[in-house]
Amino acid sequence: MQNRCFLSIDVNDHVKVNVKVTQGHVKESEADVTLVAPINLHFTVRFLGNITEDQVKRVVDALKPLLEGEISSNVSVQGVGFFGPSNTPRIIWVGVG
Length: 97
Known about the structure:
This protein is an alpha+beta fold. The protein has 2 helices and 4 strands. It has helices at about 15-30, 55-65; strands at about 1-10, 40-50, 75-85, 90-95.
């Protein structure tokens, strides 16, 4: 069986609160969009595609030593874009650096 997988990093609560405020402004605009729950926000590092359960296990095993403990970093917004047609985008993304 294959799983659609990607590597991601969770965002901290401060970022989630700011996104929630921004989403409030989007709601006020009455745009026809579905907003992601702040708990589901993340930074996508790499899309892996459809991989087998064995491949998932190998990726997890390879990354485990690198990811023990907490990693802290400052990032800044570096662009906004979307996936899908411009009149009906599926996903709006924010680039960071």
